[in-house]
Amino acid sequence: MAELHNDRFLRALMRQPVDVTPVWMMRQAGRYLPEYRATRAQAGDFMSLCKNPELACEVTLQPLERYPLDAAILFSDILTIPDAMGLGLSFEAGEGPRFAHPVRDAAAVRALGVPDPEGELRYVMDAVRTIRGALAGKVPLIGFSGSPWTLATYMVEGGSTKEYAHVKGMLYGEPGLMHQLLATVADSVTTYLNAQVAAGAQALMIFDTWGGVLTPRDYKAFSLDYMQRIVDGLTREAEGRKVPVILFTKGGGAWLEAMADTGCDGLGVDWTVNLGDARARVGDRVALQGNMDPSVLYAPPERIRKEVATILESFGPGNGHVFNLGHGIHQHVDPAHAGAFIDAVHELSAPYHDPGDDAEPAL
Amino acid sequence: MAELHNDRFLRALMRQPVDVTPVWMMRQAGRYLPEYRATRAQAGDFMSLCKNPELACEVTLQPLERYPLDAAILFSDILTIPDAMGLGLSFEAGEGPRFAHPVRDAAAVRALGVPDPEGELRYVMDAVRTIRGALAGKVPLIGFSGSPWTLATYMVEGGSTKEYAHVKGMLYGEPGLMHQLLATVADSVTTYLNAQVAAGAQALMIFDTWGGVLTPRDYKAFSLDYMQRIVDGLTREAEGRKVPVILFTKGGGAWLEAMADTGCDGLGVDWTVNLGDARARVGDRVALQGNMDPSVLYAPPERIRKEVATILESFGPGNGHVFNLGHGIHQHVDPAHAGAFIDAVHELSAPYHDPGDDAEPAL
């Protein structure tokens, strides 16, 4: 494998010194980029794009050609695992994901197996290998998965939901069955993420999109405990380097301490939390990734710059910050505004980092 | 006005002793009830139901005929104020609310006036008067409004949104204009709620549905400060009795202390917060209302009962708890499950309240 030229992202996740704060954007390969829309049109539907390693590689690299980002993230979808389990995933225009065979009873849960990452999910591993080759050491590649609770939500509901009738019906009404489902999904995620590392992923992120809709007690029992199980089972070193793991529960700002206790390396933080407060709470146990409101990118570049400055000041000097949005970039954002955001992070963060032993401390 | 026969709800909000914990449900007059669906079909569309005081009274009372609820809440919509401002509200089937004339620039903000509660909004006050008469003192009547930030979100977006592109574009890009809009809306809400009290509302609730999508700093500046302005301007006594005010920011669990500091009487709490923790944080400054996950109502009655017991135990003995769901009841809930919930609150809460000076303390 090519030597890594820019390891700021990995160093920040290990809370090691960096010259400037590294930055990437969730959903950075996405619809706000005209070149993404062109490639997607070529692929046909969304899953065809995910399942084509060459095109997945192409869209993964697109934002890196525009912006000096410090990490690439595998272009894929969180629903690849349930799709590989045979649930029949499709994306209807404007409707979001839909499963032909939702998992609603004991027979359906029992029928689920752990998909083979180099079998049904080989297209994902091929994409990881292709992207790693194409990156040629420019920046590290992040692999990812949905959290067990988040995947289970889609699997039981059969798609997106506002009311969680089926999945919470199962959680509250048949908790044993829900645990059985989550255990199978957690084992599948562990296997899947370890295969991504074997294929070349240099960091991992687990997206818990729906953990924030649970009570504190149920969050622990039905979401966090299964992320813990995954963290415990992950390959944490590859190519002679630590493979850091980031957990991100959207709306999980109240539970950062418990998330840090899993032994992960970093926590994604959304914008409803003050980053300085979050840092004070988790201390030096984990790095923090975030947390600008993606809607700030609708504002003029000078306002974006001001918000970046506010967040850098909130985190303060020292190690352990990866700058990011608090959620995926929106599709109607002007790509020039994303560029202003990334430049602002690099330019404004230098004073928060020690330039080296020979120099005066910057702050 | 008829004497109030059941004042548990008002007493609990004043943190005074009660025999059992009072309970009501957000959206208790709603689609889960077949009798509601019948009345709504008779009215035609949703706004026609809101604008017909007789039918609004009918649906307000329907849940009270089924269940021993401790409060009634005016049947209306949070968007009556922007509708009265001339924004042209309609509800498309399955689409949610839509405004024909969204407020997107300075001219549109300047054109907004404070609606006359006994003019364009007289139908709401007529509904309050009709319901008060029909209740005949059975339980108190809650009046309500959306928060300025929540109303502004709909007014600027022109409907529901997932990305908040327009409203956050204005917040971040033209904060002065956003403040001007919020000031007009806050004055309208104050006038509107005071008119509801004059018409007979015995308690008030402000629904801040979208405050939870803001950063902590913006929540204070763009949502909480305007709720403060309303609280400061409200009539707090009527018919010789305090008119308590409840603030509810969905997803606002991190900001309960600041909300309590407004001088309101109660805080709505959603289920992502442990109620005992919330009580420890706000002390005896305010009562708490909540906080069962409405999805628990999909589970069997014995599971519902268990969740009620857990929440009562979490709040603990003493005064200042109004039981409620943490959000509106869902449309697909079995009405019998709602009944099991309400009965469980009354039955299981008695041991948490002191039966009187002559008896042994219950706990």
General description of the model:
Two copies of one chain form a homodimer. Chain A has 363 residues and is of the alpha/beta class. In chain A, 45% of the residues lie in helices and 12% in strands. Chain A has helices at residues 8-13, 34-43, 46-50, 53-66, 80-84, 106-110, 122-135, 148-157, 165-173, 175-199, 216-233, 256-260, 275-282, 301-315, 335-349, and strands at residues 72-73, 89-92, 96-99, 141-146, 203-208, 237-238, 241-242, 245-249, 266-268, 287-292, 321-325. The first copy, chain A, has 15 helices and eleven strands. Chain A is globular. In chain A, helix 8 (148-157) packs across helix 10. A seven-stranded parallel beta sheet of chain A has the order 1-4-5-8-9-10-11. In chain A, strands 2-3 form a two-stranded antiparallel ribbon. The relative contact order of chain A is 0.14. In chain A, helix 12 (256-260) links the parallel strand 8 (245-249) and strand 9 (266-268). The A-B interface holds A 163-165, 168-169, 171-173, 212-217, 219, 251, 253-254, 271-274, 293, 295-296, 298-300, 303, 307, 310, 330-332 and B 163-165, 168-169, 171-173, 212-217, 219, 251, 253-254, 271-274, 277, 293, 295-296, 298-300, 303, 307, 310, 330-332.
